[in-house]
Amino acid sequence: MKKYSYELKLKIVKEKEEGYGDRHLAKKYKVSRTSVKAWYNHYRYLGEEGLKEYKENPTYTEEFRDLGLSLSSL
């Protein structure tokens, strides 16, 4: 699995907030649309901390876990 820098993730998330779509950003930065969506969701619920790499498994809020479950049912 390729790792992307915190700076790149933040740049993509900020552009998504400006209204650019997942497909456009994925193509522009040569990343998957799934990654764009995941980074944006991490950012929305955990802030900039959600974009940083961790050596250990992060602890997510119950609200964030519930969001994942609700997205998987779409």
From TrEMBL:
Domain of life: Bacteria
InterPro entries, sorted: InsJ-like_HTH
Pfam family, one: HTH_28
Insertion element IS150 protein InsJ-like helix-turn-helix domain boundaries: 9-52
Protein name from the UniProt record: Helix-turn-helix domain containing protein
